[in-house]
Amino acid sequence: MKLIKITHSDIYPTIIMDKENGIFEIKGVSLPLNGKDFYQPVLDFLDEYSQDPNKITLFVFNLKYFNISSSKMFLFMLYKLKELFDSGKAVVVIWSFDDDDIREAGEDFQHMVDIPFQFKEVFEGNLVE
User: Which residues on adjacent β-strands are paired with residue 94?
Assistant: First the structure.
């Protein structure tokens, strides 16, 4: 399975999808104009990963800000994680936030997909590398 590693920029988050080391993280600011094109490799990764997942899947969202295009893609990712969870696999989403808007977005996602979330309040400086 191919590792995905994208370094953040002004409009793109850091993304790490690393099955071997159990690291699945989206971190920073996510403002792509076309979220589908940007996040398609992550969705493809999750499709492949679901065929042979790790014993426990911890998926971290550590976001400062994101646009509606990103939000839709996050929901698609979470639905893929829900399928994994519903098949009996251990899945936990860790939702880091530094303000109420990001926390509330995570709570909304949790209600939509009904999988375990852990909410982690962090200081602003710890969100972006």
Answer: 60, 118
Would the pTM count as exceeding 0.90?
Answer: yes
Query: CATH fold of 4-126, please?
Result: Transcription Regulator spoIIAA (3.30.750)
Report the SS3 class of residue 43: helix
Q: What is the SS3 assignment for 62-125?
A: EEEEECHHHHHHHHHHHHHHHHHHHCCCEEEEEEEECCHHHHHHHHHHHHHHCCCEEEEECCHH
Q: What is the pLDDT of residue 125?
A: 59
Please write the tens of the pLDDT for every residue from 73-118.
Answer: 999 999 999 999 999 999 999 999 999 999 999 999 999 999 999 9
| 28 Rama sector, left if φ>0, alpha if ψ -120 to 50, beta otherwise | left
Strand, coil or helix: what is 51?
coil
Report the chain's terminal Cα–Cα distance, integer Å. 26
